[in-house]
Please model this.
Amino acid sequence: MKQIPIYCLLLFAGNFFFLNAQVGIQTTNPQGVFNIDAAKDNPATGVPSVAQQANDVAVTATGNMGIGTTAPTNKLHVNATDPLRLQGVGVGNTTTDPLMVLDATGVVKSIGTLGALSIPNPAVFRLETAQANFLQAQGAGGSQVVPMSVVKNTIPGMTFNAATSTVTFPAGTYQITFVYEATHSATGCTISSYFVDFPLNATTSRIHSTAAHSEGSLSNHGGAITYATTVPANRTWTLTLGRGQSGNCGGAGMTLAATSTQVLIFRIGD
Model:
């Protein structure tokens, strides 16, 4: 049996049209070098309407491909309601992966990483159990570990050792706030002084806080100590609170309050 070449069959298939090196499928009026009119509703002459283009796929002489448009302005130009769905996309890295955005015309662009944009990522640690006689054994300049637990940690690469109350940082710029509340019933105790040794590169920076309050067992005193710092990767920091030099409180009786004693860490950039 004599075989008919496939291109001959296409010529007479009724749905394929070859006009001046243009290919139209279900249209005698191809827009560009290749045009599929899925609904077969394009006009015989002229440019299809927006509604008619909505079911078209077209390729121009410059190599642009349009879906839902016969006049694509980019290498891939999609015009539709909710035009793109990506299923099964893997989880990225907020520290190193660039963000994808759309400009005013819908063109996809990259604007860098979260770190480069300095969008804060928080981590929150909290004292769950009150610490009686806190700093009792410490004189001025001494400090004691605050056994906190993790409430929230959204900083990629940051880890916390609950046994030692130690944070390990990824490299970056941070804002750290140490919030504390305590009571002290010792006679004559009216000025409580504390300090926090915040991490700073390979060393620490000591920041003091002094609070005046009434004497007595119902005397609550507290505050917040905030510091901005930069640290290298794998820098560790143990959550401690120290006895400052400007207070007049000492000995037994001080209780560091649970839940209201917290550490808030924000990663604010690279």
Remarks:
- DSSP finds three helices and 22 strands in the chain.
- The first strand starts at residue 16 and ends at 19.
- The CA atoms of residues 173 and 210 lie 27 Å apart.
